[in-house]
Specification:
The protein is α/β, with parallel strands linked by helices. It has two domains: 3-107 and 293-302, ATPase, nucleotide binding domain (Nucleotidyltransferase, domain 5, 2-Layer Sandwich); 123-287, Nucleotidyltransferase, domain 5, CATH 3.30.420. It has nine helices and 14 strands. The radius of gyration is 18 Å and the shape is globular. It starts with a strand and ends with a helix. The strands form four sheets. A five-stranded mixed beta sheet has the order 3-2-1-4-7, sandwiched between helices. Strands 10-9-8-13-14 form a five-stranded mixed beta sheet. It has a two-stranded antiparallel ribbon with strand order 5-6.
């Protein structure tokens, strides 16, 4: 049996756990120490707190480039920085003292794969056969990705949807004036805290309007992917025309992130998505446990050839 130490790095917390044969144990989490120096120290302390493993898998936010797809694309990991730009071009593997057996994967694709595994176990979706599905995960920021196949995993482009431009929701009384808004600015834990004054885990019935509005924005994101009619705020991260066309047939969407997996926020998001009015063939499935999904997903992807 191969033991993988999975580490899921988020803007609010870092979760870790041992994964053997898809079973996650010894789960721990701690608040994220932001900044290059703080992250380096925290990651090595977490790794050293576990027994020696065969492989380490890092589930990380942002776009990954470089020969091993482990280098942070400039501007895509702002949620983890203290000084603007300090993580640009940093290789995640270089932060680990012994990086020989370290695999780095985008957190959205880890959630997508791990979330699909959990939903298969719960008999919510068919077994691991080729199946196209998407993931939208509002956490501190906004994760997103699309897989054209689960077995073997194949992803469309870099999968990022956080900078999709959305038409301002007619019921949005919170965002700055203007016709267009960027998805992460209106669908994320950071946006929720700015609007409500507290975190999503402290949501009260007074926050239902915010949750429904965010849900309608998610509905618009899905609709734009399915229609192929969308653009990104950052033109340097545009998808190819071929990827946009392939993404149009994505009818199964997994909802994750801290906002998408915890009550009552997840219920408001799903209600808002329904209010938007998507195709009857579109299915929205909530990932039951975001931490477990991330750790299962990164472990699975770390063991692929």
């Amino acid at each position: 049996m191969i033991a993988v130490l999975g580490v899921d790095i988020g803007g609010t917390k870092i979760a870790s756990g041992l994964v053997v044969d898809g079973v996650v144990t010894q789960v721990a989490s701690s608040p994220t120490t932001l900044g290059l120096a703080g992250l380096t120290d925290q990651l090595n302390r977490i790794i050293n707190s576990y027994p020696i493993v065969d492989r380490i898998g890092l589930s990380v936010p942002g776009k990954l480039v470089g020969p091993f797809a482990s280098v942070i694309f400039p501007g895509s990991a702002r949620n983890l920085e203290v000084k603007s730009g300090e993580l640009d071009h940093v290789d995640w593997r270089s932060l680990i003292k012994d990086s020989i057996n370290v695999t780095v994967k985008n957190d959205a694709v880890c959630q997508l794969i791990g979330g699909a595994q959990l939903l298969i176990q719960a008999n919510k979706i068919p077994h691991f056969t080729p199946c196209q599905m998407g993931y939208i995960g509002p956490g501190t920021g906004l994760g997103g990705g699309i897989a054209t196949s689960l077995n073997p995993p194949e992803f469309i482009s870099d999968g990022h949807l956080y900078d999709m431009m959305l038409c301002r929701d007619p019921h949005d009384t919170f965002s700055p004036a203007g016709k267009w808004v960027m998805a992460e600015n209106v669908v994320s834990g950071r946006a929720f805290k700015q609007l409500s004054g507290h975190g999503a885990h402290e949501a009260t019935p007074d926050d239902v309007a915010i949750g429904l509005t965010m849900g309608r924005y998610i509905g618009q994101m899905i609709h734009r992917v399915q229609s192929g009619d969308w653009k990104k705020h950052d033109s340097s991260q545009n998808w190819t025309t071929a990827d946009v066309l392939r993404a149009k047939s994505t009818d199964v969407w997994l909802l994750g992130g801290s906002l998408g997996t915890h009550h009552p926020m997840c219920r408001w998001l799903i209600d808002g998505i329904r209010q938007f009015g998507l195709s009857p063939t579109t299915r929205i499935l909530r990932i039951p446990n975001g931490v477990e999904a991330a750790l299962k997903g990164v472990a699975y992807l770390s063991l692929l050839p």
